[in-house]
Amino acid sequence: MVGRNDMGTPFMFMSRSAGEPVSQVWPTLSEAQRLKLLTNLAAAMSSLEECGTKMNIGSALFVPNKYDQTFEYKGIGPLIKFDWYSFLRTDLVYQMEGVPNPVLWPTSTPSGPFNTAYEYLLAALPDPNLMPFPFSPLNRGLNIILRWIIDSIPEHLLDSPCGTVLTHADIDASKILVDAECNITAVMDWEGAYYAPLVLGYTRPPTWLTFDWNPLARPACPSDSHTAVRRYRSHYSNCFPPDPRKEVSHIIEALLVASQYPEAHVPVIQRCLELAFGGPQRVPFDLEQWAFEVGANGVCVFGSHPVESRISIGEVQKVKEMLRGMWTDVALREERCWGGKRGWFFGGL
Predict the structure, then answer these.
(1) Long-range Cβ contacts of 24-33 (<8 Å, 24+ apart)
(2) pLDDT of 196-244, one tens digit each?
(3) pTM of the predicted structure, to 2 decimals
(4) Which of 19, 155, 265, 325 has fewest C-beta within 10 Å?
(5) Distances (CA, A) of 53 to 49, 196, 242, 284, 319
(6) How far is CA 345 from the centre of its chain?
């Protein structure tokens, strides 16, 4: 597989896997078949436990062995971080000049490795000074509120004494193949696999069961309601040993997505506020208007007080208090907040 061979280049032998993508078969499955599929997927993901645990968050580093055609493990290295904010900022400049943007993909830089999940989540947040609209109070305010939400997560839900676990980066329905008996025949696209905190590890639900939180995720069946998705999430979670992190893993993943992708800011923050205040109708302000005020009036990320703001210190502290409280009894809170409503892609909230 390494470059020291007759061809002088790395290569890999692969074979075509049997089965159909879950994205194609899920809508046709009965309830019993869906639960069986999820049980089998959980068993497949559990096999990653055999890879052991590490103490840092990052990618596994392997180097070619000097003496044979194998690789030698060298430790945990950095992850790749894509700079979507600078990309959008550049794109805006070209739009203003009326010419096409020659840059087709954001630049990437090494990020990490990280000692804690908290460090990992914070590193995903953009630099407020490099956001796509550098003078936009709205974008700055959304970034600040997202930081408040991350700060509100109890430490015991983020990190585990046992360390980090190997996990697939994107357990999407299009990347899992199953046979006619709902057995898992293949899980594809492992190039992004990394050692993650347990809350984001292999026990987290697949993405098609998180579309009610993650705006970049797509349901495998458009008719799936929030109630159905929570039921499937609960079933999948119960296939693993008890752990309080499992109840919130889909929310932590949504926060990670919101930190990385600008278009996810508003929907994920809005979702967190609704969970914190007890429902969509109970959030006492319009998010974008409030975020504009936060971003325009000096409520900085690192805890300084508002300066000449129409938002009082008391209002800010109330929001932070409600955010801290949302991490208890998450499943019950979700049921009370949204009941059986569908996700925002199909019928809205």
Answers:
(1) 25/178, 26/173, 26/208, 26/220, 26/221, 27/220, 27/221, 27/222, 27/223, 29/182, 33/182
(2) 999 999 999 999 999 999 999 989 998 898 889 999 999 999 999 999 9
(3) 0.85
(4) 155
(5) 8, 10, 18, 43, 37
(6) 18
